[in-house]
Amino acid sequence: MDFTLSDERRMLQDSLSRYLADNLDHERRRKTLDSGAPYDADLFKGLADLGTLAALFPEEAGGFGGTGPDIALVFETLGRAGTLEPFLPAALAAPLLTDHAGLVEQIIAGDSIVTLAHTEPDARYDLADVSLSAKPTLTGTKTNVLYGAQATHLIVSARETGDRLDPEGISLFLIPTDAPGLTITPITNVDGTASAQVAFTDTQADTRIGEPGQGHALLETATAHAILALSAETLGAMEAAKDLTLAYLQERQQFGRPIGTFQALQHRIADMLTEIEQARSAVLNLAGHLDAPRDTRERHVSATKNLVGRVAALVAEEAVQMHGGIGMTQEYELSHHARRLVMADHLFGDVDHHLERFIHLSGG
Amino acid sequence: MDFTLSDERRMLQDSLSRYLADNLDHERRRKTLDSGAPYDADLFKGLADLGTLAALFPEEAGGFGGTGPDIALVFETLGRAGTLEPFLPAALAAPLLTDHAGLVEQIIAGDSIVTLAHTEPDARYDLADVSLSAKPTLTGTKTNVLYGAQATHLIVSARETGDRLDPEGISLFLIPTDAPGLTITPITNVDGTASAQVAFTDTQADTRIGEPGQGHALLETATAHAILALSAETLGAMEAAKDLTLAYLQERQQFGRPIGTFQALQHRIADMLTEIEQARSAVLNLAGHLDAPRDTRERHVSATKNLVGRVAALVAEEAVQMHGGIGMTQEYELSHHARRLVMADHLFGDVDHHLERFIHLSGG
Amino acid sequence: MDLAFTQAELDFRQEVREFLATSLPHDLSEKVRLIKRLGKDDYQRWHAILNDKGWLAPGWPLKHGGAGWSPVQKHIFEEEACLAHAPRTVPFGITMLAPVLLAFGTKAQVNHHLPRILSGEDWWCQGYSEPGAGSDLASLKTRAVRDGDHYIVNGQKTWTTLGQYANKIFCLVRTDPDAKKQEGISFLLIDMDTPGVTLRPITLIDGQAEVNEVFFDDVRVPVENLVGEENKGWTYAKYLLTHERTNIAGVGFSNAALATVKRVASEVTSGGKPLAQNPFFAARLAQVEIDLMAMATTNLRILAAAEAGRAPGPESSMLKLKGTVIRQELTSLLRRALGPHALPHQPDFLDGGDNTEPLGHEQAPGAAPAYFNMRKLSIFGGSNEIQRTIVAKSVLGG
Amino acid sequence: MDLAFTQAELDFRQEVREFLATSLPHDLSEKVRLIKRLGKDDYQRWHAILNDKGWLAPGWPLKHGGAGWSPVQKHIFEEEACLAHAPRTVPFGITMLAPVLLAFGTKAQVNHHLPRILSGEDWWCQGYSEPGAGSDLASLKTRAVRDGDHYIVNGQKTWTTLGQYANKIFCLVRTDPDAKKQEGISFLLIDMDTPGVTLRPITLIDGQAEVNEVFFDDVRVPVENLVGEENKGWTYAKYLLTHERTNIAGVGFSNAALATVKRVASEVTSGGKPLAQNPFFAARLAQVEIDLMAMATTNLRILAAAEAGRAPGPESSMLKLKGTVIRQELTSLLRRALGPHALPHQPDFLDGGDNTEPLGHEQAPGAAPAYFNMRKLSIFGGSNEIQRTIVAKSVLGG
């Protein structure tokens, strides 16, 4: 049992943190968002150059990481800084691109973005809820495609056989975003991140990922990686929100004293800190079981997403409440983290979805 | 809309409260419990003489009440004083005994106790879960029969047709407790109240309550009355627990000042008070809808039992926690109310049962 | 005890329903239903319709053009208006300033200001909070120094809701800097177009510029704009806080929000079935519905007491505490119900008219912004922490 | 980062399992499983079995007859012992007094007391709390006045757990009444059979007499029974509070309790189906299981830090907070799972041996008493309010 970071990981974390401290603050993030750009391309490239993306891929794929702890470390650091840049697609795609060395090389360099186009408008969070047809060209609509308007390629889930909700019969295809028959509508999400709605009309699908009809297991694996990444990022955002709140409680004076001296707030801070430690442990649990057999891994996937989602909402709501009005202004950094904390629950299944799934996976 | 008490009801409440203040305190209750007696027979008789039982029956039955507000008023007063005496059976039996004027007269006088024998060992909270057979004599076992060892008569639910869980085919019978074939095992409950397990072996059942096979609707009506009574009693116990806690917070010194001056406890008291007002409103809602059409009434039954159960656990747990060790001692009055508050959830369906039932009744 | 409304009250409810059915413009109610952003015109249109009917100022006496309604009537109107998705009436002139003027203002002030509020000629906003005076409002620093027939006002107010639409602001200002905190505060009426008044919008977490900072730089205010006595402003502010708060529980809003969540849950699917049938979602929804059923009765109990002339005690703090929790939980449930559809930010839809098509469910664009916006409920109007302290002190003293 | 145990640790776990399988008497583990009440004999039997194996004192050095286990080994033993329903070892001598003696006692004290703790000759209890000194322990009033070779002790202690079985008590007493609160306190060892010591049992809410009041009336205690220096007792008490707290999270207890609730939920029915299949109950259970999975890892993180020699900070307070919430929630779930069966009070079953038949499910008699008893978890050992203050001060200062 060892919860310490290896020297290599500590160095990566240090260099990432330093780079982010030097190159990102709330004002610059606001400027990026106000400019209409989906994210800061220079920052993305700079982080890629530091090895941020390489840390998400194993050595055999040209990276130097790719394990659960690597993913957790990178995304916690990104989340603490409140980045908008497209790293989550790489976490999603990494386990799916084992046969695409060239593309992975481009991803690691920050030159290609490959993202998953999976959620359909009526599908909510069920991974097997795929209707987009592949007979053999693709027709249908995907939504919540993360950075879909900036991606160079999509990995698209499509149904070859069976009915909607059937885990069998789903295939994955790799499609360049300049393929004919794609209509991509860019979306800015409530939390400032980018996604897209993508309509497919008779789109050619020549490059399969995995075996025909066996895409569901791959979707689970990719989602497990993404949930780890998103949970770690959320943990980082909790830390950021906590730090802002602690500083504010010590600085803000009301009734002649810092509000952090009021016991009711002290006790709520104590509960918030305790829950953040729970979230940290939940992230560690999933990181440590990312390569475990499917049933074990998926139990941790749902346990972690459920717990982190609950704590994230608590931290966001408590941090805003303890700040009062200032916590609700866009000018102040907390509002960014609060939005990320809350909206992360809407990606890859919310707390209720994963509670139900945990019960199901536990044999209930 | 009028939330004030009529002069008559206010007089009843005043006389009950005064009598209870003069004749019951924690020491006397402990003495009764330590004596092995199920309750204080003199106190029961004294309360009966004041009209406590008469207030649970309508005028046409020889009483002077029987409406929702009457039941709520009586039981809140009893609950605040923390009585152990057998009033709940009368609330249960009142709507079932419309054809038994003589018996009702004896009940009102405190000379007869008629209670419902309904719950079966494997039935949990489902009113339709009746297996005890009536073909035509009764054979089977009932448990949690309130004051079953002290009762003069039982109203027994039995199955004439259909299978377990079928609402159709359940009949009710009135049986004297000295009937042959009855084995009554007295039980003291964790909260100090009395109940019994009753085994029936070929027991004669000559006196029907209601039509054959139509007992389920009567059980619902009786349970609605009992849930109102128990919820009001629980509300009274909350008030008692609250009063003790407020007094303790003002009196108990730690760190050189009354613990009631600590803001963290102040804020928790505020939440507790707010929730108790919610419970009071829930009791009023059920009291006001006790004679409403079945679907409306039952929605309020489940809403009220759910809400009161949640608040009761909160009040019990918070009151004990704010007291610290002293709150956990039998010598101190709070322990009595805390047990009543918590264990009431185990009668007539707990918070989860009624949440599920509310959803079902709401068309979910 | 009787939970039922009187026949007169039932008749009144029917009258309100009919009025809303015939007089509330559909495009306005659709905006409200879809949690779109209302502009000045939207509010003014609805104010004018209400004023034509004589219902714009529910609590004012008839002789001043008010409706003269009882607390229960106000409650009934509020319930029906919310269910019909009517815009809220902007409270600053009608339910905040006017009662203070009626109680403490001069006859001239009443006669001058009240008609202008009704007509829409004046749009008032509130100058209470300051950057350093939030929950601790009495520590406010904006100064008003007497100079002949004028006060010279310097300082800053913040969180001024809809100040961008206002031409008038009522302010708490410090007129005696040497007095103890609550003393030395006065209640002053200021024209927003007086030289030296500037306004800076604050963009909130939901992307809306709903609140503002207001700066006062040597602003000259005629002394006749003082309400009541100098240095007694805190009394008037407190009067305002303990009166005219019949709607503090927000029962009408919550009823409407509950209906919206139920409708969405029946329209969106989870695992191929309506979300409403999912036991986990149904449990959350039922729990808040049960809480709301009880709070509605708590609200009626307090209304009945108000109707009988009893002054509200800590109960109104309890209503605010429970009411905000319920309203916030309902905004959270709407966001949850919409699942992935709640993610996209759609300002064009929220600001747009009838013809903008939403991405995803029609309730999706408004859901997350409303959730974030409604965090304010537990912060403003006396934060929930302040309310808890009020409740505790009412029973513990000190 | 590596969540896995080492091979040596896995081997140790296997060794513990085998020991428990062969050496834990079935009648004892059944008593624990059914939450029956253990008597003095039960505890002493189990202590003797552990002592024969050399495992009674996990943290003591080998040369004093301890097991010399690492924090992780202690944790593994605790986990396995709980899952096997072993009785807990009574902590007062082994994990509370002995570490203080080892750190601050004389050689003579160590050599005299430690063997008697292992042999069972001495049963220690704790004299810390007083009626007026609970959370504010430093305000204790029990006086010890030097009189030649003795201290004369007067005062009262309370909440003395299992004091009715003890022949010795370690006490915090005030030796300098003029010093500031925490100063002037000494740590004193007292024979319970000294004249002037009397004990009064306190019956708790669950009907058990688990705790006691202890009265001291001119009790003469030899000065050699002072531990460490006079007036330094607060330092030793604090040492005790921050050390030897590996089990503060109660993960082992919670794992066992979770297994019990799951088993009961699969055995009792609701609407004709196993309760485990009811989504409302399943949701409660899954939620606490998920919380426990995370807290178990928090616990391991702190263990790993302890193993690396780092002193525990506010983390142990967080573990106590979360650990007690989880344990209490599990007792609540067991009570809920049993439904109406949880109502009857069955002291004969709880105090009885193998042959008493329970009314209802076999886990029914213990369920409600355990729920009520376990409310103590958030009160004693530093109430959860005290723990929250510790956590907050660690980040906010003051």
Explain this structure to me?
The complex is a heterotetramer, with two copies of chain A (about 375 residues) and two copies of chain C (about 400 residues). Chain A contains eleven helices and ten strands. Chain A is an alpha+beta fold. The model of chain A has no long low-confidence stretch (mean pLDDT about 95). Chain C has three domains: about 5-90, Butyryl-Coa Dehydrogenase, subunit A, domain 1 (Orthogonal Bundle), CATH 1.10.540; about 120-230, Butyryl-CoA Dehydrogenase, subunit A, domain 2, CATH 2.40.110; about 245-395, Butyryl-CoA Dehydrogenase, subunit A, domain 3, CATH 1.20.140.10. Chain C is built from 13 helices and ten strands. Chain C has helices at about 5-25, 25-35, 40-55, 70-85, 90-105, 105-120, 235-240, 250-265, 280-305, 315-340, 345-350, 365-375, 385-395, and strands at about 125, 145, 150-155, 170-175, 185-190, 195-200, 210-220, 225, 270, 275. In chain C, strands 1-4-5-8 form a four-stranded mixed beta sheet. In chain C, strands 2-3-7-6 form a four-stranded antiparallel beta sheet, with no helix packed on it. Chain C is globular and about 75 Å long. The mean pLDDT of chain C is about 95. Chains in contact: A-B, A-C, A-D, B-C, B-D, C-D. At the A-C interface, strand 6, strand 9, helix 9, helix 10 and helix 11 of A face strand 9, helix 9, helix 10, helix 12 and helix 13 of C.
Keywords:
heterotetramer; A: alpha+beta; Butyryl-Coa Dehydrogenase, subunit A, domain 1; Butyryl-CoA Dehydrogenase, subunit A, domain 2; Butyryl-CoA Dehydrogenase, subunit A, domain 3; 10 strands; C: 398 residues; alpha+beta
Summarize the entry for a quick read.
The complex is a heterotetramer, with two copies of chain A (364 residues) and two copies of chain C (398 residues). Chain A has eleven helices and ten strands.
